[in-house]
Every structure is written in C-alpha cells, then in structure tokens.
Amino acid sequence: MVNYLAVTGGSGGSSGRLGYLWANDEGSTDYTPDPNYSYNSSGGENTIHRDGTGRYEINMPALTNANHGDVQVSAYDATAVCRVKEWAPAAGALSAIVLCRDISGFLVDTRFTVTYMKDLALRGFNGTRSYYLWADQATRTHYHPDPDFTFSTVGAAPPFIHRFGAGNYLVTLPGMGAGGGVQVTSFGGGRGHCIVASIRSSGSPQQVGVRCFNVAGHLQDTRFTLAYAR
Prior knowledge:
Elements: E1 17-23, E2 30-31, E3 38-40, E4 47-50, E5 55-60, E6 70-75, E7 80-90, E8 93-102, E9 112-118, E10 130-135, E11 142-143, E12 151-152, E13 160-165, E14 168-173, E15 181-187, E16 193-199, E17 206-213, E18 223-229
Antiparallel strand pairs: 1-3, 1-9, 2-4, 4-5, 5-8, 6-9, 7-8, 10-12, 10-18, 11-13, 13-14, 14-17, 15-18, 16-17
C-alpha cells in the first residue's frame, strides 16, 4: 500500500509530534533532505548521516524527550528492503537507525522514506481513526503491546496481537472499523522483512494480518511497527 501524508496543522495546534523525510541521496555521508519532501513539526531541520553501506542515522530535532512513538520506513527501490533497527531520544531529537539490504540480505545503499509519529498517526494533526503500535514480542502467542509505544485516536481498549505460528500475526485494533490503510516496518538488526497480508473489509473491530519473512522467503518471527489510518 501507499501512504501519502499531508500535514494539516502546525506545531502549535497539537501536542503530537510528527516528522517525515525522503532520504534521496543514498551515497552521501551527511546531508539535509530536500525540504519539499521533509517536515518536522518542531520547525527543526531534519538531517541524515550515512554510517557505512546501507546504515543510516536519521536525526529530527526537538521531536522527542523519550523513546516512544512510532517509526515507519519504506525502501525507495524495488531491489531493496529497509527496516528500523532502533530509535531513541538524542538531546531532545529523534534519532533513528535505518538498515537497508538487498534481496540476498546484504547491506546496500538505497533511497528510502521515514515517518515518525508521537501521539498522532498517519493522517497528521487533524486526522481521525488512527492507530500505531510496536509489536515487540515476536514469539509470544497473545499479548497487548507496550502502551508507551501505542496510540489510538478513539481511546478504545488496548490493541492485541495474536501469533498463529512463525512469522504469522493478527493485529486487532479496537474502535476501528473496516477499511483504511496500513503500513508495517520490520524492527531490529535482522535481515528479514514484514508485509501487510490482509486488512478487514467488513465488520469490526479492524484486524490486520502481518507476515514476516527471512531472506529465503520463509516465515520468521520478527518484531515490527504498525501504523493504521482511516
């Protein structure tokens, strides 16, 4: 799926925090992304540091003082897969490590997009019916994700995640109806990737199927982040 994020409010209009960018110069060591494809709700200037082949550090000033929120990453190349290795506060900024690999699992320089959200979700400041979460327990059969990394615009019961088997998950989003859009990003230093396998088109609550694979294409238990908007 594709998510297009349009900012419909300013930094003074919401307590939420939002940043996005297009990392379009994959070989440069340090650069500021094109402002037409970069946004920071604090008014700061996002930057990118390449720390070796396929390894990038994203810095979004003044966006966080805690390692909460949600990060989504998408490769801008059909022959590569990017994932978020980690994110954390750094002197009040959001610092996220992005790893990009080719289809064989080797680190490779490539372009990608990044979106960071805290206390809002994919539809920006004025969006409704939005969710994000971090699925951080890859082998657990059934659990509620960490509330510090979970957000819902409807204040419903907490989401829950069910694992049917290796790499096969169902995410239930209470308070959300059928339809909408989903983005999922694999998390950690591994080589695999996660995809949206299904999204409920009728009934409620919304349920999203997620499947995660290793480089050989076999299902593999993997942590991931997920963002939903309707």
